[in-house]
Structures are given as C-alpha cells and as structure tokens.
Amino acid sequence: MEILLNPGPVNLSKRVRQALLKPDLCHREIEFSDLQQRIRASLLDIYGLSHADWAAVLITGSGTAAMEAMMVSLLPRVGKVLIIENGVYGERLSRIAEIYNIPFQKLHFGWGEEIQTAAVESALANGITHVALIHHETTTGRLNNMGKITAPCKAANIPVLLDGVSSFAAEAIEFTGWNLQACAATANKCLHGIPGTSFVICRRDALQAAAPGQRSLYLDLNTYVSQQDRGGTPFTQSVQSFYALDEALSEHRDDGGWKARRTQYRTRMQQVREGLEQLGIRALLPVGESSCILNSFHLPENMDYQTLHDGLKARGFIIYAGQGGLVQSIFRIAVMGALTSDDIQRFLNAMREILKTRDN
Predict the structure, then answer these.
(1) Is a pLDDT exceeding 80 seen at residue 23?
(2) Distance CA 354, CA 249 (A)
C-alpha cells in the first residue's frame, strides 16, 4: 500500500474502509435521511455550534464545489466582496467571482506571504460588504492568522466567508470570534473520509437573507438546506462517501476531536521537519507560520521534483509538487490520514536512500 503524503485524499483507516461495504441505499429512503441528518449534526458538534443558528449543508462534490456554493449562495447581488489572496486557492475564489460576475476587489499578497492586517483594514473602506479568504493556504502550507486578519472585519461587522477545506477538523476555527458567516470544507482531508462529499457550515440567518438571489441550480445552498432540514435531498448524493464520512466523524470523535487531531498532526510534522533538516532539507516557512497539516520544503540540491517523486513512489510514498512558479523549488508533505510514526520514519529512510543515490 502506498503511503499518501499529499494533501488529500488520505490513507483510510480500516473502520472507514469497511464502511464502504455497507448495503446499497436509495437516497430517497428514510435510512439515507437518518444518515444525512447524523452527519450534519456531527459536523456542527466538532466546533460546538448551535444547531438553531448554524446549518451544515452537504453537497456531492469536491472542496471546490463547497467553495463555489458558498460564494454564489451567500454573496449579495448588491455589494462587494474583498477577496484576500496569498496562494492558488485565494486566487481561485477570485476566479469564481469573475465567472459569476460577483462584484469584488482583490487584496493580493505573494504566495506564502503573510497577510497584513493594516492592508485589510484599509481595503474595507471601499464599500466592502463581505470578505472571503483561505484559512490554510496549501500552496505553501501557510496558516493565515485569522484572529488578526478578521479583527477589523468584526469591528466593522463585515461577515467573513472562509475556505476551511484544508483546516476544518484539525485547526482552531472561531466561528463567532472571526465573524464567520460560512466555512467551506470537505470529507477527504482532516476528517479522513473519501473524496465525493463536501459541505458548507453557514449561519441560518445569512442563508435566509440570501434566499432570493439564486445564481446556481446545483450549488444553491438554500435549495439544499430547505430539503435537508426536512430529511430530503434535491439531487442524488454519493451514498458510499456518506457512509465513509459518517464513520470518519465517529472515529474523529472517538479519537478526541479536532484538538487531539491537531496534536497528532503536530507530532507527525515535527518528526518530518526534524528528519528532513538532518538531511539538509529546509522548510519553506517557520513552524509558527505553518499549519500542522501540510508543510513545504525546498527541493534537495541538484535534484528536480520529478526525480524525487519517482524515487519515493518506487519506495511506496506519494509526495506533492509545488504549484506555478514554485514547481522548480519546493515539494509538499501532508500528514493527514491513517499514518503512524513508523510510516514517517520509513519515508525519512527512503529520502536518505535517494540522497545517497544522488551523491554516488
């Protein structure tokens, strides 16, 4: 079995994999309705959210589907969203706004650069009604400092739409403290489910206010929540991925919740960083600016990414390339999924072998 050190999908635990073998099920039957409602409740419970004030809306699609649904469903036709970019996924939010003709303003920072609060505060003066940004920007592994970034938003009572695709269930998310209106995420990253199901956690009052402004058929959150609240679903859902997510949520809860998962990831990432440093491979960002989930590293001297990737794959490990202009300089390691410290050590041993081969 290959060890996946890419940022999703992840290696599954035995109990989640076994859940995929549950009976075939029609999405219009009561058994599916019960499954769906259980998942929705469990998602809200991860961060202790009120079921009366918040809704978890399930969509069959990738994390990008959840990002798009959040943007097109909650941004008003009259207003302007400030989109803060410091990587590929912030830029993807801008692309969504462009495609749907949503009025927006970019606040651009370099890939991996820290978002400056003063720049955010200044941009809010330009008639901004919403702010959208990425929590964990996996382009570089930077964990954006949401407390600082959203402080001026909260002071001005400007709601925030958060891409939590690569942070939900393993990093701190302060829904009230950060003035969040919605958070988009997916099953196949920190929750350790399989690809196919994504979701948006959103304020019910924001959904009600946005209801008249439907822009999309399939990705309209109000369409979903109105039927899911009644036990239904507007479109065919990915039943097997729901089974897997339900079990993954139970496993997440049994393991101690998001704080325990963060501790687990931090321990794994420390092992990775220390091991690679001993091999002369430097991290792109310091620990205090990186997520616990994924870190970026400079490529070894005199070795391109493809050579490193292929050497590791031959030894049973999958890593991830840099994107855009970083493809020639970094590689990325994620520590999600059913991994052990022995898996990490075997990866480090494989790295050592590859470097020896280069030097001979």
Answers:
(1) yes
(2) 37
